[in-house]
Amino acid sequence: MSSITQISRLSNYVVGSYKTVLHTRANWLNNIQVCSYTKKSAEEKLGIEKPKRPLTPFFKFMSQMRPALLAKNPGITSKESIAWMSKHWQQLDSETKAQMVKEYEKDQEDYKKIKELYEASLTEQQKEDIKKLKAEMSAAKEKRKLKAELKEMGKPKKPMSSYFLFIQTKKDLLQGNSMKEYQEQIKKDWLKLPESERVKYEKQAQLLMDKYKKDLEAWEMKMIAIGRTDLVRQKPIRQPKKSKSVKEQ
Question: In degrees to the nearest 10, what's the CA dihedral of 97, 21, 35, 29?
């Protein structure tokens, strides 16, 4: 049976029975529905139980229907799943949607009350810890974003050191050993390596580093040329020499 046929049959079942799901509205204070893919907040990482915002009607619909959809079609992709949810959300009758909106508004009222109690219960130390961790998480996010952008813009990758080049030749030692045992053995082999052999790795590493520096400088010049000075290193960069005019020559 094709995926489209499975989804089509499932939609007839799921949409038709969705009203019955709404009749069993759980107590929001004790059974909060949240998206399973939500990342941990600063409060959660600190072990502080913070009340979560209630799901909007559409996301609540998704959370209720997703398990049944995956059960009937486990091979469905996230893109296909979201497309299916959006389509059947649009087909949902206005009466059911109106009921979901009312529930959401009630959940919002409960959330605001609980949030006020939660904020009042926090100690000054907890507030400071949350503020500090949020700043660290924000900085880490910006760092990941910058790293992704640098990769997208084609920034040359820093080459491996002589030691890591040596490691590349010893991957077979990992078989049958734990990572700790593997690392310890590699370190011993590197320290016992004859000077003549170590020099070979050091020369190879130096050649790669020299090429990297040239490629990096060329890349930075390119970034400056297109106005992306924010992506270059925070130090003076040699500007390209201007060609002499006829008069100067």
Answer: 100
Q: Do residues 29 and 117 touch, judged by C-beta distance below 8 A?
A: no
**Over the stretch 53-78, which tens digit does the pLDDT of each residue have?**
999 999 999 998 889 888 888 888 98
**Alpha-carbon torsion angle 17, 19, 23, 29, nearest 10:** 100
Q: How many CB atoms lie within 10 A of CB 100?
A: 21
Other C-beta atoms closer than 10 Å to the C-beta of 166 total 21
The residue type found at 196 is S
Task: Note the pTM of the prediction, 2 decimals.
Answer: 0.56
DSSP string for 205-221: HHHHHHHHHHHHHHHHH
Q: How far apart are CA 32 and CA 25, in angstroms?
A: 11
Least confident among 3-12, 64-73, 130-139, 143-152:
3-12
